[in-house]
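Hey, can you fold this one?
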Amino acid sequence: QVQLVESGGGLVQAGGSLSLSCAASGLTLTSYNMGWFRRAPGKERGFVAAISSSGGSTNYADSVKGRFTISRDNAKSTVYLQMDSLKPEDTAVYYCARYRPQRNYVPSRKSEYDYWGQGTQVTVSS
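Sure. Predicted structure:
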């Protein structure tokens, strides 16, 4: 049974940093591209960042480019999202997700992710 468990969320002041983790179980993480999404209050879940199975390729939403960094440690079955220079508009529930195997890789396409974590709340105060 595939499980993705996010952690590391919390309350931080604008300009601060947080590091999110996504611990994966029930799958061989090295086989999968992975992504982070977020849902802000009153908005749909949107793409944040993605990383290829080897870690050699990363993609970011324009709104977080240069501030967020996605990485992975396949040996620890964990995907990370380092968030720096946080802004109040980054306030959201953050989710990690697994990209469907053997599909054309379109990192920002939400429908191509098949397993999701429960999410972790990030709140950035001004």
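The chain has a mean pLDDT of 96. Let me know if you want another pass with a different chain boundary.
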